[in-house]
Design goal:
single chain; alpha+beta; hypothetical protein PF0899 fold; 2 domains; 6-stranded mixed β-sheet; about 35% helix
Amino acid sequence: MTLEELKALMKETVQAELAPVLETQRKYAHLLDGNGQQQTQPKELEPGIRLARFAKVMALAKNDVERAAKIAKTMYDDPVLIKALGEGTPSDGGYLVPEGFSQEIIPLLQAQAVIRKIGARVVPMSGNVMNMPRQTAASMASYIGENTNIQVSQPAFGNLKLSAKKLAALVPISNDLIRDASTQADQFVRDDIITALALKGDWAALYGTGTGDEPLGLKNTPDVEIRSVGAAIDGDILASVVGTLMQANVAFLRPGWIFNGIMWSKIYNLKTATGQYLFREEMNQGKLLGYPYQVSNQIPVANDANKTTDVFFGDWAEFMIGENMRIAVDASTEAAYVVGGNLVSAYSLDQTIIRAIERHDFGARQPKAFIVLTDVYTA
């Protein structure tokens, strides 16, 4: 064997030995940077987790966004979060959470807020005011004879004006959870923020007075029928509600009921004269008289002899939620909050108060599409 042949053989042998190593290097090259260090890839997280992280690091940084970015790098090493903190926008309610983080919250609110789950329409508001036309009277048709003039009629239109209102939720969080970088702690903070916004939003959509900075709720909306029952609920009362809206030519695009847990129990236990349950089978499927229902503890029970309460029914496609789609967060360890009429200090309990502000408004585009039963006995 000549020297040249020996060199060629050695080269082939070395290449054969290196081939598996080179293939492995090629396969995983996308994970390595120029220094051979593994790159940190943004992790896929549950919706709303980065909103919670944003709030937590802002709390730890005492609302100093530059310091918050440094804390986020140490605590989470989340490039998306760190970049978002660098782009944080101050507002009158704290720092605006990046739009992408805020939009993740909307489906979560949809899952918790009864008024959203039942089918209310969410309409993005680009500004603080939105005007929505609504038809208040329809055109009329008529039969005519030969050489008879056609009677002219015109539809009438009104306007639903939505003006963004600030919903501020105060969420007390243990400082142990604020300092905890685990996903479970992030989930807890996220869920507390969402629950606070959802519950207050439900109350305002149903009972808001429309005065001051409060939205106008359905029960206080002019032209929504308020029907006083003055008795316990029964099948005839429920059927009459549905029949009234059918007679009014309501479209029934997203019809549904909203009542509280006490009323759910009363309806669930209604029986025929022979002892058969009237609605149990379909209520186990989430429907009443063929229409979906939702249960909300935001519907109160009066402290009177009959423990009266309300029942809402309507076509919720005609109930509008104008939403600004941005959430502002702020945090304080010195703030106080009220529980049961008593002022509680966050500092003394080693808590941080996270304030989340959402801007929205509510309105019934067609008030005739709703009926509110009042004075319904539960005792």
